[in-house]
Amino acid sequence: MHSYVYRLNTLVTFAAVLLAVLCCAASFLDAFNSPSVRAHAEVIKVNRFRKQLSGNDEVSLTLNISMDLRSLFTWNTKQVFVFLAAEYETSKNSLNQISLWDYIIRDKDHAKFQAQVASKYPLIDQGSNLRGKKVEFVLHWHVMPSTGRMIVDKMALSKFYLPEAYT
Amino acid sequence: MGWIGGNLESIRSLQTKQALTQAVNLGLVVTSALILWRGLMCVTGTESPVVVVLSGSMEPGFQRGDILFLHMNQDPIRAGEIVVFNVDGKDIPIVHRVIEVHERQDTGEVDVLTKGDNNEEDDRLLYPYGQLWLQKHHITGRAIGT
Questions:
Q1: Is A149 within the bounds of a domain?
Q2: Positive or negative, the Cα torsion across A117, B84, A89, A158?
Q3: Which residues of B are catalytically annotated?
Q4: Do B80 and A142 touch (CB under 8 A)?
Q5: For chain A, what is the domain count?
Q6: A155, B8, B53, B133: least surrounded by Cβ within 10 Å?
Q7: Nearest to B78 among A92, A97, A145 (CB)
């Protein structure tokens, strides 16, 4: 009555629909996770603070970072991408966000740590505005799921005033 | 002889009808797929609402062959977002993360620098010669899920 092809077609369609529903459900359940993140960052040393030949200020820092991101992990989490951004304002730019350091956390066991790190990426201004500038450190995290919607959030950690003079 | 001729005629017209029906059905299927695709483009606001990851530059988050859902709206671009952009003159869309944002006070225009999670260097090497930043018009979408 029903051929092989017909039955196979029905089976595959059903499986595909079921997979889509499960993926949506997994992502939906993630929304119920209410995480509590703790983190701290402070500058230990200003390694370098100078004006480049191009006229732009450049800063390199060593930071002490500690964080506890374990509550972000669910069974649907593939990894958490975390980065520390230095955010500041200048007369030309209403917002400057520069990532200083980033890290990929693969599982819950590695989500709580403390480290002393040198800034991975240099803080280079568009111009020469950094002397004495107030910079805010904001920790951003992107929870990347195995399937579904990414969850993005951030937390302001501390403020830091750059030196008045180049080193 | 008359009824053979009559039967042949009716069979041929039945086959033609069937063939025509199948052709129309196929046309309907293709058209509805196109309508669905265009509708998705409208809803998400991007030219390519779904893309396939082509390179390994975002591993381990996105593997080659992963499917990404994109969305585009007027929200300002912020650091950490995963954006899709085309380098001038090249057709291949690149999916990388924004690591630097500079937004102008007066115009709200942004200068953006991107980098693949798995790459050592930022994307300045990919931008055309002399171009240091991406602007909003280079970016065709933001990844919202996999």
A1: yes
A2: negative
A3: 57, 96, 123
A4: yes
A5: 1
A6: B8
A7: A97
